[in-house]
Amino acid sequence: MDDIRILQASGLDALIEELRSRGFRVVGPTLRGDAIVTGEIRAASDLPRGKGDSQDAKTYRVRSRGDDAYFGFAAPAQSSKPVFFPAEEVVWRGHRDHDDDGHFTVERDTPDGAPIALLGVRSCDLRAVQIHDRVLAGRSHVDAHYVGRRDGAFVVAVACSDPAASCFCASMGTGPRPATTDPETGASSYDLLLTEILGEDDHHFVMEIGTDAGREVADEIGASMGHPADRDDAVAVTDAAAARQTRAIDTTIVHDVLRASAESPRWEDVASRCLACTNCTLVCPTCFCTTVQDVSDLTGDSAERHRVWDSCFSESFSYIHGGPTRESTKARYRQWITHKLSSWEDQFGMLGCVGCGRCITWCPAGIDITEEAAALGRMSGLAAPAPAT
Amino acid sequence: MSTAAAEPRIADAGDPMVPRRYAITRVRQDTRDTFTLLLDPVNGAPLTFRAGQFTMLHAFGVGEVPISISGDPAAPAPLEHTIRDVGAVTHALVNAHPGTEIGVRGPFGTSWDVDDAADGDVVFVTGGIGLAPLRPAILDVLRERDRYGKVLLLYGSRTPDDILFGNEMHRWADLNDVNVQMTVDNAPYGYTGKVGFVTELIARAGFNPRTSWAFVCGPEVMMRSAASALAGRGVPAPHIRLSMERSMKCGIGLCGHCQLRDLFICVDGPVLDYPRLEPLMSVREL
Predict the structure, then answer these.
(1) How much is the pLDDT for B6?
(2) Domain end: A188, A208, A243, which one?
(3) How many beta-carbon pairs under 8 angstroms link A with B?
(4) Which of A373, B112, B229, B257 can bridge B52 by disulfide, Cβ–Cβ 3.0-4.6 Å?
């Protein structure tokens, strides 16, 4: 669908207004405190204009860019994961009938709310949503609440121009420019793809159309027709962004490296640094493990079953009578990274890491998934040894 | 599911995360700490299930646990679950009065598929409450006893008092031509039965390994050594099936708790064959 448009920066408000008038709740990057997070966007002024970020191992800082870029940051502190897959939600509500000893009724909870338009989603996070489409909505049993929110969502992706030091999407093949289609389903990855072009006295977006709904919106807001050369400009932005990334995972061997590393001495090493704090799993855009909590009122007559995010780093995660099956931190870290970079592929035909770098940024101990994967590669003998220095 | 119309009090019975209501008709004490719950659906048809499958049982306001069905697949009413009183939810379940309603989701997971063993010898190896998930498979075999060769049940328990379904095992031996061998880990003075681990029975048990199928259920350490002993005697590894236990919160492959490397035990298992499990069971804390 080679339909290229130009949206002037001043046209962002029209885009947001058009989405809102179509009934969407628009969510995208916004500045809250000293972090760029995902929140409701009512106008372009809600976007973190002129803000960038510095991210590296255990480092996150928002900085002023000194320009007017709306999307001049890398990965927001939190991904768009909570938009379709909130950290906590009610699965069902039950009531005990007092007149009728021991009886209770159960009502399934159905989330309502406006359909969602994701504005400014990064390529890594968009790929993570596609991975969740497979994990949560493409199985024999599906997460009905996820499907309900995801169906009918509108996606305005924005290609990355300024990656952080923590980013490694280029090596994962997940960015910085999103794939046109979801490789699993063949569906368009986005309705609209924007690439921000910031010149001396020119500030516009190259707008690529992904779906008919996207074209309708583009027509409605009067985005002018572009040329193939504009697309070249957009690709140049992401090519430059990819070239600036310094971290990487070798996806050609990583599945086999992890498979071969179950008894690696590296686990003791990483366990001596890992605090099992669960930060990495909470910021990871693909981590999907959950637990349930039964919340009852003081009388015990009403109870709600909540589905909440869980983490394989907690001791209770693997608990069965008698104790956890993964008691040590080394076993839990091994489970996490092996799932991400190896068994996920066995389960779902794709890796579970999109290279967003958040686990590196938010690890208080500075544990770096790319460094651990590389070390395991060398120790397993599957990767070339580190060059002598 | 057609049950939605028959159950107006449950808004959406088709959602596998929403429990169906069952009434406890009887709680039968089997041993000191083990009880069998008999359940009837409050509305709609009894649950149909295959031997080896499990359900998620919900004690209102307390929580939910995965429990293997222990009843006869050919006689699904009342629904039977045999439960050891080891935690908050199981404690609430076994102490519930008859008439109390509990929530049931499922059935979930894979089956023992004992049919595959037709014409061969069948060896059940189990310990403690591990007999409960195997009981539906044993009943499947006994219903068509003449389709199978020798049938052996090797059973171990901690003490003589912990022997589960003891009367029934004697009945199987007397009436159904089942070679039942029991052993206990610890016995009081004067006990005349066998003392030792159940896996020790495998070496001398009378079956033809080449044509045998083995169905093993018990603590993981016991299953590991039992499967190894069976394979060592020459039972083909794909003919050895084990039922795995892991933490489970959903039963439908979504919560992630039961993962064992690439497996989701709740949907890929709980019954899995030895070639699949052997490399996974040999790594500690995997």
Answers:
(1) 32
(2) A243
(3) 127
(4) B112
> Contact A82/A121 with Cβ under 8 angstroms?
no
Domain count, chain B: 2
Same domain, B169 and B68: no
| CB < 8 Å to A320, chain B | 245-247
Radius of gyration of chain B (CA): 19
Say yes or no: B49 contacts chain A, CB-CB below 8 A.
no
Which of these three, A177, A210, A243, is where a domain ends? A243
Task: Please state, in angstroms and rounded to a whole number, the distance separating the CA atoms of residues A114 and A25.
Answer: 6
**What whole-number distance in Å separates Cα of residue B276 and Cα of residue B285?**
17
Residue type, A62: V
Q: Which residues of B touch A337 (CB under 8 A)?
A: none
Q: Which domain holds residue A56?
A: 4-243
Is B179 within 8 Å of B189 (Cβ atoms)? no
CA distance A103 to chain B (A): 6
pLDDT tens, position by position, A12-65: 999 999 999 999 999 999 999 999 999 999 999 999 999 999 999 999 999 999
Confidence of residue A100 (pLDDT cuts 50, 70, 90): low
Any A CB within 8 A of B88 CB = no
Beta strands in A186-309 (DSSP E): 192-198, 203-209, 224-225, 290-296, 302-309
**Residue range B149-189, pLDDT digits in tens:** 999 999 999 999 999 999 999 999 999 999 999 999 999 99
Task: Please name the residues between 82 and 141 in chain A that touch chain B, using a CB distance below 8 Å.
Answer: 91-92, 94, 96, 101-108, 110, 135-136, 139-141
Question: CB distance from B150 to chain A under 8 Å?
Answer: no
What value of ipTM does the predicted structure carry? 0.94
Confidence category of residue A384, pLDDT binned at 50, 70, 90: confident
State yes or no: pLDDT of B8 exceeds 70.
no
Chain A closest-CA separation from residue B173 CA (Å): 32
- Residue B23 reports pLDDT greater than 60: yes
